[in-house]
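Supplementary material to the annual report.
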Amino acid sequence: MAKREYTPNDFRNGNAVKWCAGCGDHAIFNSVLKALPEVAERLDIPREQFAFISGIGCSSRFVYYMNTYGFHTIHGRAAAIATGLKTARPDLSVWVCSGDGDSLAIGGNHFIHACRRNIDLNLLLFNNEIYGLTKGQYSPTSKLGKVTKTSPFGTIEEPFSPAVLAIGAKASFVARTIDMELELTKDVLVAGACHKGMAVTEALVNCVIFNHKTHADYAESKAIREERTIRLVHDEKMLFGANKEKGLVLDGLHLKVVTVGEDGYTIDDVLTHDAHTEDTALHTMLASMRYPEYPVAVGIIRDVERPTYDSEVTRQIDEQQQREPNKCSDDLFFGGETWEVK
Amino acid sequence: MSVVIRFSGDSGDGMQLVGNLFSESAAFAGYGVFTFPDYPAEVRAPQGTVAGVSGFQVHFDSQIVAHEGDKCSVFVAMNPAALVAHRKYAAATAMVLLDSDNFTKESVAKLGYDIETIVAELNMTECNIVEAPITQMTLDAVAEFGLDRKSALKCRNMVVLGITLGMYDISTEYAEKFLIKKFGAKSELVCNANIAALHAGENYAKNTHLVGENQMKAEKNVLSKGVYRSINGNQAVAWGFIAAAERSGRPLFCGSYPITPATGILEELAKHKALGVKTVQAEDEIAGICTAIGASFGGSLAVTTTSGPGLALKSEALGLAVMAQIPLVVVDVQRGGPSTGLPTKSEQADLLQAMYGRNGDSPLVVLTAHSPADCFDKAFMAAKIALERMMPVVLLTDGNLANGTEPWRVKRVSDMPTITPPIVSREELAAKAECFNERGLFNPYSTNENSARYWAIPGAEGLEHRLGGLEKQPTTGVISYSPADHAAMGALRAERVARVAEMVPQISVEGGDSGELLVLAWGSNAGKVREAVMQLVAEGVDVAYVTIDLVNPLQSGVKESVARFNRVLVCESNSGQFASYLRSVTAHGNIRSMASMEAKPFEVEHLKKAILSNLNMN
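Predicted assembly:
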């Protein structure tokens, strides 16, 4: 296996980054740059086999800063364009940079169908719960009651949870991270890029201008994140808190937060995370957890194997080509019902 | 004098098969043929009802035939519903062949007619009505094979085929070969029963001296030497792309969403995985074009197929393909509109949508096909333009082309024009300083001598780059909203399209280079309009004809030819869209429109009258 020796800087093209100072997108960008050398090595592919596809929105400017192949497309359609690219070129590592408006509003249809087909994409969904580039209108993930320019009396719409939607739509890899958790972001992105199938990573990012501190209750500082988020790791107990003293147990059909050693709960009662189970029930419950009732789940929530769309397309073509080796257009055109005029 | 035969019956009566076999037998015997199926819109309407009638029209002649004909001169009606439903397609004096066994007091009454008066009520008293006991003939003919009644009755269509072939003294040889191929291996019994039915029909025609109208003889084959097959427009489009993929060395990718009447192209392409064709049935029309754009970015010959409503949905993505200079073919198999409109009827009313239906000044190539077999050449040509000039091309066909069939002289891919996309590697560009910026990075909008963007395909080392829908500087592709850059890029986009005229042969005017009236047609009407004009020319009328295949940029020679005639008449199935476009791009002051908004094919006789009246009026 050839060694792919890249540094994060090999993946940026030097263009000036134009996100607002303090925007969470900067942190995600740096995490992606750190992830890419590792992905190149693990997948054993050179830089020119990476393609970043984006839609429209602040997050979609991402591709202009990358030194890979890239395509800044139209609003909501990145997942569809990436689906065509990956189907045509299974050898590429295809990434999608998208936002909550891009993927869940105007592009909702393409998002769910990409998940359902399990096309081998690595979709990074920047969730700042607001429309930033159009300057401050509510998005499909804005919290209920959120006051914005287009909801001056508060929103009256129930928000989507991107991770829950992705699980419901049968994505085979679903993770969540937080902009300030650079290592976590890098780790889940590497895992998502190396996963065969649709990998959705929801990144909770802060929009410093139009939705400042929307995630602050559970993401503001390391201390708050320790208490109010839970990092899920496959095959490990679902524990959180500064001293890992709190855990998740199943109480009937619901999750419940308990303190180990209190109210008769022991470590044995605490659930062990199984990211690989086919069953979506517990993954959905984990992805659905909202602060303050629950800690917000981060890390790899779901990571299951099933055939990918692109590999199945290739398989069918291989099968038919084995049945009819070296078939060419002339064989088709001159075969079947023909007659000759002499 | 040509013959038009219409076979009409229940959906289950096998009329499509009879029609196809009749036309192929006639072509095999040397006649020119053109066919058009007329399926019911309902998927499975009840038997014996008007809604369930399926028809198939064959036009044949001892010369080349370019359309499905006007009203039929021979009308086969398998039951009363077929007679009632398709009476309107029969000429006043048509020969009408009925399965008399199916015309009972009850079956006729079910449709609200009286068996004694139905002929008069349908205004068919001038018709030559031939009452043939087709059902009984079938049962007698296949009796020796011991089939159950249901299976035996399935051979009725072969009796009809035998009768009609016999009426025109066309050999049953081709049909027999077909039956042996189709049933021979599976069931000798069924095969032999069908052949017996075929002969019974043929004998009936001979014994009763049943002679069709307009007898003629194909003295020598009207077709030039070669291998032929019957092909419809949708299949021809699909095969044109398959040929272009092989010729260009680019893998073929089709992203589409099913829509009438375009679905046949996606269905055809989906079959050919052995040829490496990749198809994605997308979640919607937008994803259809977007998956194609993605595949194109990855180096494929990418196509998407649709009809008018789908083209509307694709328009934003089509603008992206214009902006990012993405090679792509969009096939619009037009139907009647607006909105959902008339899905199973054909119209040419998407022309201006294709031309202008996008935001901003967003010019693209609009190419049209004028016959089912021509769909092959035009699909190939559209792919060549897209791949060599790095741009989207809209190919307009329509429902009549999609479903109509005619003989196609099979082409070898090696005989097709070459297709040379401007694919580059870092090494090939190394000497071209303008292709790289001061940091040595590739300038993605650098172009070759044809104003085509160099195609750097992901995987090409050292040519990593970003494309996008934002306005940009020429060559470097750096995002720019400066007035000068926007103007420069806008001019480049227009120039790129204009230069495509050099890739398409110039028009050829028939009937005289100059004179009183030049008649123009495009698309599926071309065959009929041309025939109408040629008949008038033969009658000594001062009129000429031209088919337009390339709408944008306007095909070479149109402006010059139009200027040599006093009047110009455009015949098209819409409100006069090409005529108004032509007025906007030529200085000619007398461009007239013969526009039909009925969403039905023109008739040659009607066209001749319209042309004459345009000559007579001032």
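Chain B touches chain A through 71 residues (CB under 8 Å).
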